[in-house]
Amino acid sequence: MNDIWAGLSSAFWLVVTGDPDLIEITLRSLQVSLTALVIASTIALPFGTWLAIRRFRFRRTAIAVLNSLMGLPPVVVGLIVYLLLSRAGPFGVLGLLFTPTAMIIAQVIIITPLIASITHQAMRDLWAEYHDLLISLNTTPTRRILTLISDGRRALLTAALAGFGRAIGEVGAIMIVGGNIDHATRVLTTAIALETGKGDFALALGLGFVLIALALSVNLIIHALSRTEREGRW
Amino acid sequence: MVTPLLPAHMRDVSVTRRGKRLLGPLDLTLGKTGFTILLGPNGAGKTTFLKALHGLERLSTGAVTWAVPNDLARMRQAYVFQSPVMLRRSVRANLGYPLAILGQPKAQVNKAVEAWAARIGLTPALDRPATGLSGGEKQKLALARALIRTPEMLLLDEPCANLDGRSVKDIEALLQSAHQSGTRIVMATHDLGQARRLATEILFLFKGRIHEAGPAPDAFDAPQTPEFKSFLNGDILI
């Protein structure tokens, strides 16, 4: 219990004093996770919607594989990205290993299936509702996808926030591909792991509370901007 | 000069699902004008007939052909469903959707939307979510959304089911007006009174087959088949 109070107190002082290291790693956490979220959403939202409206031969298999990929172990993703980006790997020449870009790549791989799968579930129900109308109006497949994304945006927001939650809290993969280098690739989660390893539980907990507050703030800001739950619907 | 959409021909059309025949086989020609009312008991195949005609139902046999290529034909028709499908948008966006997807300029879309909203009495609700409208308002909106493109053919699947008298009257007035403007209408209904008020032609379906087809006054005054006679008498058809 003392550790928790010490953690809260540590978090409070880190924030109040505007600790430069805290600000740096917080901004890097946000930069990495939000960039990964934007890239993953750009891929996953249209793909999940397309999967909901398109009938093709191995559709069931594709959905089953997508759902399975939601549980991708981050450490394995980190290892594979590490091998691909390492000097001996096929993309070693790009020199991306131990950079924020490598961390973004790993996070995109981890959260894209999650966002795509939730999108697919939500869009499948909306498509069942809209199917006859949109076919009757002779809409093109692209128009159908755009209509579903536009009208299902609140469900898609949930999908995106789930992706953000997974990305901001991820540690295994970014530790491997980022290396937790001070002033270069250190983010909140890797800093927490480091401080825990050093036995400084108060600072680790303090960083943990900052991370929770950050995730909560981003969710609240996105909800406020997208004007959800502003009026009763029942 | 634009080639007219009609006549439409249904040749040997049938729809079978899970071994059960829902419709047909049917052979029918729909002429260029008229207000056809599709009558029949529950499960007679009225919805399947309308969907097959519109291309929403996969045919098991036969084909529906129009005076224009089939891929262009649906563009010139509109369909109103029994349960109105509302896009999760405002009334304005719902009304304007069929024009917006054609790439019409925003000002033109807005002008048409406002004119139609005034016609169906939904001007005050234009910026409200369409999903919050009453059943009658939703159905009027669905009908206006279908008519905003001035289709050559309008298909309606029991648009007045479960509506109050005021809404039914408003919808019938809109349909009469569309018919007088030259829109070919085919509408399914259970309501014999409505059929008598609106129809110029009757199609009576029972167990997926057409049992009576002809001008409305003749069909009502001198039904040709025992099934239609029983239906007019209010008997339960099994």
From TrEMBL, chain A:
GO terms for biological process: transmembrane transport. SUPFAM superfamilies: MetI-like. GO terms for cellular component: plasma membrane. It is found in: Cell membrane. The chain crosses the membrane at residues 34-53, 65-85, 91-116, 155-181, 201-225. It is a multi-pass membrane protein. It comes from the Bacteria. InterPro entries: ABC_perm_TupB-like (IPR049783), MetI-like (IPR000515), MetI-like_sf (IPR035906). PROSITE patterns: ABC_TM1. Residues 26-222 form the ABC transmembrane type-1 domain. Its main location: membrane. Keywords: Membrane, Transmembrane, Transmembrane helix. PANTHER family: PERMEASE COMPONENT OF TUNGSTATE ABC TRANSPORTER. This is Tungstate transport system permease protein.
